[in-house]
Amino acid sequence: MIYWLYEKYLRRNLSTLPGSICFMITEQDHIEAPGNLSRITEWCRELGIGHVTFHISTDDPDRLARYIPEIRTLGEIARLTLRYRETKEVLGSGIDVTVAIGESGRQEITACIRKMAERGVDPEEVDEARIESFLTFPYEPDLVIKTGGDYLTDFLIWQSVYSELFFLDVNWPAFRKVDFLRALRDYQARARRFGT
Length: 196
What we know:
This protein is of the alpha/beta class. Helix content is 34%, strand content 21%.
């Protein structure tokens, strides 16, 4: 089938879009197709999606250091928040895009608890709202997309508890707009229950 025709069909039938999407990719995924971050950001901007996160899983963020300049160019088309090692950079304006390299959900929760302890938060005052106020990533993705298999990391382990998960058998380098639209169509067809 001609992909542009299928894309047109899928896009025409989309009426309910997620406000926030998270893509979970591996270090190798990014090395093989670094330009996908920009392409997907453009697609999200065209569709009116408010926030997109790219989590690049790696046990050694330094191996991705040479890609940082290219990632920063996202600030030319979006409001980029780049988290790399202990640093946070914010560049540009427009659709909110977060790129998190080598971040871990367990580390985030641990840091959250440590910050509460350092600030002397009374244990009786610890509830979900208090924990969320100390999180590094203060947003909950409506949709989490994982390409090339079913292995998820613990990134956004707190925030994604009610997220819809979409696993694609397509590998990241081969990810096309039609695959993205298929994920959005699947999201639209689901009845979200938010744990109820």
